[in-house]
Amino acid sequence: MLGPDRFAPRLHDVPHEELEAAGIRGLIVDLDNTLLGFRETELGEEHISWVARAHDRGFRIVMLSNNQSGRVNLLAAQLQVECIPNALKPLPFGFLRAKRRLGMRRSEIAVVGDQLFTDVLGGKLCGLYTILTEPIEGKDFPVTRFFRFFERLMLRGRR
Prior knowledge:
Blueprint: E1 6-8, H1 16-21, E2 26-29, H2 45-56, E3 60-64, H3 69-79, E4 82-84, H4 92-102, E5 109-113, H5 116-125, E6 129-133, H6 142-155
Parallel strand pairs: 1-6, 2-3, 2-5, 3-4, 5-6
């Protein structure tokens, strides 16, 4: 349940061609430490380009975040993707809302995020393909730092 289907150093390292070959057409993407660093406000060019190429290839994307509405909505608008803030991950409600917005079957959707106990667990609870990325930086919310300790124990030697 806690094992991601795939690992990637960063979101922009996930090949679109590999997703297409696996039948993936929809993406649920985390925000903090997946698309941009903790408390950063400017998206990196590599992630902006990756999302733009995904759109060009026909992927649909929903940003799913536990963060506040204002920040999530602003960044989602910049990327031209739909978003669900205050998602309460890993509870399935936000993931299921994202799935409905994508309008796709579970087998066509991948979740991409940097946290085992929110992104991967929530995706797995909903039967979705999961990709775990490395966090962009070491800074995190205090509760996330707590869970990172257990994440390192569980993933030792698996990345």
